[in-house]
Amino acid sequence: MALSKEQIAQRIARELQDGFYVNLGIGIPTLVANYIPEGISVVLQSENGLLGMGPFPFEGEEDPDMINAGKQTVTKLPGSAIFDSATSFGMIRAGKVDLTVLGAMEVADNGDIANWKIPGKMVKGMGGAMDLVAAAKNIIVAMQHTNPKGHSKLLPQCSLPLTGVQCVRKIVTDLGVFSITGQGFHCDERAPGVSVQEIKEKTAGRLSIADDVPEMVF
After folding, report:
1. Does residue 199 surpass a pLDDT of 70?
2. Phi and psi dihedrals of 155, rounded to 5?
3. Is 103 strand, coil or helix?
4. pLDDT per residue as tens digits for the range 73-82
5. What is the pTM of this model?
6. Is 106 within 8 Å of 159 (Cβ atoms)?
7. What are the catalytic residues?
8. Backbone φ/ψ region at 125: left (φ over 0), alpha (ψ -120 to 50), beta
9. Rounded CA gap, 97 and 75, in Å?
10. For residue range 75-109, what is the model confidence (pLDDT) as tens digits?
11. What is the domain partition of the chain in residue ranges?
């Protein structure tokens, strides 16, 4: 059975390490804030100028002035700091972010990522993603394995305009967890109930996957 968006975020949260500074992109990545493991202390950074971001607020407790980069209302933790976007991007460009979690439209089997533009559709620009993929020490992508038409989003090469080149380290989709290696995608874990054959059929890029690849445990 394919993972829900919440389960994708929950699995990515296991990649967090104590003391990490982490940037969460728009979409599924923002949900990671709700699943930080007990005993792990991380500092969440939002590129619009917030360090020490907390989980989403409960209904009725939202502060319309406290938002993340995706304009969603968030909370702030004790010791948090608010500053301008120039300072925020100074942190990012200086390599102070240990981990970035991003959504993507496509990922190539060499680690290229396309996550900002579909030709013919109006967009405001690449936004902070270009800085994050260039400067973050580690990048994990959270996304659906296929697009709405059922076509693979894990490809031999991206067909959409690139955000970054050979920068992605790991991908968590609704079908499994995949590392980027010199031989393409490597399936580390599969979603509960998802078969090896289904993963092969829905992955267009180079893929190595063992017949006995372990299932994720939640």
Report:
1. yes
2. -120, 165
3. coil
4. 999 999 999 9
5. 0.91
6. yes
7. 47
8. left
9. 20
10. 999 999 999 989 999 999 999 999 999 999 999 99
11. 5-39+97-208
Long-range contacts of 188-195 (CB under 8 A, 24+ apart): 188/213, 189/11, 189/213, 189/214, 189/215, 189/216, 190/214, 190/215, 190/216, 191/1, 191/2, 191/3, 191/7, 191/215, 191/216, 192/1, 192/216, 192/217, 192/218, 193/1, 194/1, 194/2
Q: With beta carbons less than 8 A apart as the criterion, state whether 186 and 176 touch.
A: no
pLDDT at 156 over 90: yes
pLDDT 10s digits, 17-44: 999 999 998 889 989 988 999 999 999 9
- CATH number assigned to the domain with residue range 5-39+97-208, chosen from the 4 options 3.40.1080.10, 1.10.10.10, 3.30.2350.10, 3.40.50.300: 3.40.1080.10
Straight-line distance from the first to the last Cα atom of the chain, in angstroms, rounded to the nearest whole number: 13
Determine the average pLDDT of the residues in 64-70: 87
In degrees, rounded to 5, the angle at the alpha carbon of residue 178 between the alpha carbons of residues 19 and 200 is 170
For residue 193, count other CB atoms closer than 10 A to its CB: 9
